Amino acid sequence: MTAVSFGLNLTSMNPRQSPPPGLAPVLWRDRFAEGVGRFIANRAGWVVLGTLLFVGFFSAFLPQVTPKNDSYDFVVDRDPATDFFNKFRKIFEKDEFFVIAYRQPDLFTEPRLRELKELTEALEKVEGVTDVVSLSNVADMRGTADSFEADDFLVTIPSSPSDLAALRRRALANPLYDRTLLSPDGQTTAIVVFSPIPPPGSDRDIEKEIRALLKSVNKILAPYRARGLRIAVAGWPVTTYFMGEYMEADARLFFPISLILTLVAIWFVFRNIRLFFIAALGIVLTLMATLGLAGLANITINNASIAVVPLVMALALSDIIHIFTHLDRRLLDESGGRPREALGRVLRMVLFPCLLTSVNTGIGFFSYTFNSVMAIRSFGWLAATGMIFEFIVTFGFVAPLLTYFRADRIYRSPEDHKTREIPRFIRWVHGAITRHPWWPLLLCVAGLAWGDGSPGTSRSTRTWRNFSIRNPNFVRTLILFGTTWRGSKPLTLFLSPPETLSKTPLSSSKSTRSAKSSKRTRVWTRWWGLANT
Length: 533
What we know:
The chain is of the alpha+beta class. It is 57% helix and 7% strand. It is built from 19 helices and six strands. The strands form two sheets. The protein has a four-stranded antiparallel sheet. Strands 3-4 form a two-stranded antiparallel ribbon. The longest helix is centred in the middle third of the chain and has 35 residues, at 236-270. The radius of gyration is 34 Å and the shape is elongated. The protein starts with a helix and ends in a 16-residue tail after the last helix. The relative contact order is 0.14.
């Protein structure tokens, strides 16, 4: 009596009746696994075709996958601080900025000031730049008894040494310039370039805009660098750009390495070229479907969701190894040498445990979709669906494809398998634990004690730690900004009610100049991000 007919007989039995003595009841999961396994083995061609169509549908959206490194993806939504920030931005428009700084001992000389003015004017003409602030156009406010004047600091470039020295003293004495546009020693200056910030949730490609902007800026800076001017660039837009560059570079380098190491593990364990290529195809198809879903659902690839790629590789490998491990030649002999029936027996043993593992792991990753951070939610969606996709590809493509190879080439002998390194190592570990069961327990207790006594995990929000300190340009940038603009100085603002203000109005010309130059009078207490070009 076959297992299927036995299952049917059990179904027709009275549920209150017990099975015949000596026979265990067939559980529903066994009937499910056997039915699905037989279908996959007997309809292998149709199953493979259906899986390829399934993967092909999602893979068609691969060109729409876009990497994105937007700081707003890492902001906690539904947080009071975030809500306040969004409301504040609607009332007070703010532009993002980055800083171009360079150091010249003879900064306050006529050629250097003219060079600064030319560079500032050239940057103002770049597309995407809303404003540029430097010593050549920043407002210089001078207060009197009942009014103040606000003109450009560098209206004309003086030529006499005494006028240049007086200009330098004026700049160093202005607290609005200290550590924002000029270093305390008067030898390092900064040019602040402003660009608009897209609103949160905007469809604009921020990285593309930043890339185009920085490309134009670097084109302007190239002649000055050619003259030997060592220019450093810092700011959150630059940081966002380089984080994207580093992420793409790491993806191009480490993902092929991850795939190769995964396949090397397959080869090292099974030593079979056919299983090697089948596993490679299964992993690649799983990645294509998962990333294609990102393009279809407009899920951006950021520094969090990019971790899905090696994760899917590892999890797809685990299900594939379950199948390959059960390709025992004894099952083939018991099936009368029929590959389809032997594969059905294999799937009956592994299909339900793999399904249960995939579903449970997918549910665990799905819990991340309820996170308040957009980047974590995108990771949760891709990881959860990746688990489902790897199960579909493993049992819809890898498993049925085994029926198209000679069975004697893929079903291994148990005796040959026992002589290989990993089975021998596993048997050695099993024997050691069986003979000395207390040693593993003591080692675990010692590890827990050491972990409990070790210093706590440190956390750092310093963005510059994400960059390689082996980069000489980055090191120069870090040293320049760290030694020149480290820290901030307090600025006290006194606010008085309108009735206490002077009743003498400012002249129209002064009011016009003040309103015109108010945008150029900005104080920054910290630099947002740090990177280099």
